[in-house]
Structure formats: structure tokens, C-alpha cells
UniProtKB/TrEMBL annotation:
<dbReference type="Pfam" id="PF00005">
    <property type="entry name" value="ABC_tran"/>
</dbReference>
<feature type="domain" description="ABC transporter">
    <location>
        <begin position="4"/>
        <end position="235"/>
    </location>
</feature>
<protein>
    <submittedName>
        <fullName>ABC transporter ATP-binding protein</fullName>
    </submittedName>
</protein>
<dbReference type="GO" id="GO:0005524">
    <property type="term" value="F:ATP binding"/>
</dbReference>
<dbReference type="Pfam" id="PF12399">
    <property type="entry name" value="BCA_ABC_TP_C"/>
</dbReference>
<keyword id="KW-0067">ATP-binding</keyword>
<dbReference type="InterPro" id="IPR003593">
    <property type="entry name" value="AAA+_ATPase"/>
</dbReference>
<keyword id="KW-0813">Transport</keyword>
<dbReference type="InterPro" id="IPR032823">
    <property type="entry name" value="BCA_ABC_TP_C"/>
</dbReference>
<keyword id="KW-0547">Nucleotide-binding</keyword>
<dbReference type="InterPro" id="IPR027417">
    <property type="entry name" value="P-loop_NTPase"/>
</dbReference>
<dbReference type="InterPro" id="IPR003439">
    <property type="entry name" value="ABC_transporter-like_ATP-bd"/>
</dbReference>
<dbReference type="InterPro" id="IPR051120">
    <property type="entry name" value="ABC_AA/LPS_Transport"/>
</dbReference>
Length: 236
């Protein structure tokens, strides 16, 4: 059984359909990519999965439970964490305090301090623990955003363009982190425009175009799919 499943999720803004019966699965221990051109509906799908937006129709299932009616905090306690495309750090707090605030919302809130320190260490952020979040360069701020999601010890981790603003070395290290999370059993859903990262790190890729899934499969196959080339890769 997939850990996370969307079942025919549709969302409209005014008369315009942003998601059209999107059904996809995310498995434990795998990195699943979600790609598509600008405006395809990727962030909207993240909003539906994380509980920030109610779908017009369709369901979201986590570990077999229908969570469609639950709010973001309840979903976080169930083990679902996300990052945002536009960084949502508390700028005036230190890096460590950003993690502590997030840890309080997750299932591991009783061990928040320990989790924060371990996560900082894992992401190579220990030296920046006392820095103010708004003083960080973009690459480091992206990592803190990821750290804030990870400190909640998620079963499912939703990452919205985590490599934007990272340099090649940071992206390489980040790829290693994603693989090690998958090896530990975490289900990772990755929205990312860096195609070489997606193709290297993902076990499976879903392609959204105009709110609908137009292709799904292993990266090699998706890369050669004519619909994908037309909808997305041809755009670059
Ligand atoms: N709050 C909103 N109100 C109205 N329309 C919206 C809103 N949010 C998103 N949309 C529209 O829904 C569609 C999907 O947008 P979404 O941001 O989910 O796409 P995306 O695939 O994440 O794009 P990008 O890669 O540029 O981040 C777009 O046409 C967008 O203009």
C-alpha cells in the first residue's frame, strides 16, 4: 500500500481548473519526482496534500487514512512535512529556534531539542545554529527550510523546489541526503526544476501539465516520453 495517495483530486480557482482528477502514489523508501511546466499545478497539489487547500473533489490518503478533512497541524502530527517554494523561515529567529518551533508541531515534540541538534548536524548547519535566519545566503536558507521539515521526523516529506538557489556542490550533497532519507524508509515527494537532480535522485517521476498527470514512470522512461518532451522538456 502506498504511504501517500491522492485520489482524483480536483481544484479550481474561479472557473479555471488548476488540478484535474490527479491520482498519484508515493511509496515509503522512495524518492518520487513531481515535475511540470510553470503553472502545471505542482504547488497547488502540495497545498492539497499538506492541508492548506481543500480540493473541490477527491481524497488524500495517508497510510490508508482519509485525511482530506484534516488541517495542516493534524497532518504534521501524522508524519507529513513540507517545505515551501517561497521560503517561510522566521527571519528574526536563529536557525536553531526555527527548527525548535517546527519540532514542537511534529510527533517528536518531546525530544525537540535533541532532534534539532541532530538535524542541524546532519545537514551541516551546526556552525550556523545561532545565526539569524534572515542573514543566510539562499543556499543555506533552503537547507534550513528542509531541516525544519526534517526535524518533525516525517514519514512523508514534500519538498517544493529545494535546490533553487543552491550551487552545484550544495545540490550534489543534497542529492545524497535525499537518497539517505529514502534508504531510511522516508517517502520523499520532490518538486524540482533542476532536471539533472530529478533524473539522478528519483525512483519514479510523475509529470503534471495543465493540472493533469500526463506521464508516470522511472526517470529514464519519462525523459523519453513524447508527451513529456512536448509539455515540458522541450520548453527548456
Ligand atoms: N491562489 C490562487 N488563485 C488563483 N489562481 C491560482 C492560485 N494559486 C495558483 N493558481 C493558478 O493555478 C495554476 C497552478 O498553479 P501552481 O502554482 O500550483 O503551479 P506550479 O506547477 O506550482 O507552478 P510553478 O512551477 O511556477 O511553481 C496556475 O494557473 C496558477 O496561476
Amino acid at each position: 500500500m502506498p504511504l501517500l495517495r491522492t485520489d482524483e483530486v480536483s481544484v479550481s480557482f474561479g472557473g479555471r481548473r488548476a488540478l484535474d482528477k490527479v491520482s498519484l502514489s508515493v511509496e515509503a523508501g522512495r524518492v518520487t519526482g513531481l515535475i511540470g511546466p510553470n503553472g502545471a499545478g505542482k504547488s497547488t497539489l502540495f497545498d492539497v496534500v499538506s492541508g492548506l487547500r481543500r480540493p473541490r473533489t477527491g481524497r488524500v490518503l495517508l497510510d490508508g487514512h482519509d485525511i482530506t478533512g484534516e488541517g495542516p497541524a493534524r497532518r504534521a502530527r501524522r508524519g507529513l512535512s513540507r517545505t515551501f517554494q517561497h521560503l517561510e523561515l522566521f527571519g528574526r529567529l536563529t536557525v536553531r529556534d526555527n527548527l525548535l518551533v517546527a519540532a514542537e508541531l511534529g510527533p517528536g515534540r518531546r525530544r525537540a531539542a535533541r532532534s534539532a541538534d541532530r538535524t542541524l548536524d546532519r545537514l551541516g548547519l551546526t556552525d550556523l545554529a545561532d545565526a539569524s535566519a534572515d542573514a543566510l545566503p539562499t543556499g543555506a536558507a533552503r537547507l534550513v527550510e528542509v531541516a525544519r521539515a526534517l526535524v518533525q521526523e516525517p514519514k512523508v516529506l514534500l519538498l517544493d523546489e529545494p535546490a533553487a538557489g543552491q550551487d552545484a556542490e550544495e545540490t550534489g550533497r543534497f542529492a545524497g541526503l535525499l537518497r539517505s532519507l529514502a534508504a531510511e524508509g522516508t517517502a520523499v515527494l520532490l518538486v524540482e526544476h533542476d532536471m539533472s537532480l530529478v533524473m539522478t535522485v528519483c525512483d519514479e517521476v510523475h509529470v503534471l501539465d495543465l493540472g493533469a498527470v500526463v506521464a508516470s514512470g522511472p526517470p529514464d522512461r519519462v525523459r523519453r516520453d513524447a508527451t513529456v518532451l512536448a509539455a515540458y522538456l522541450g520548453e527548456e
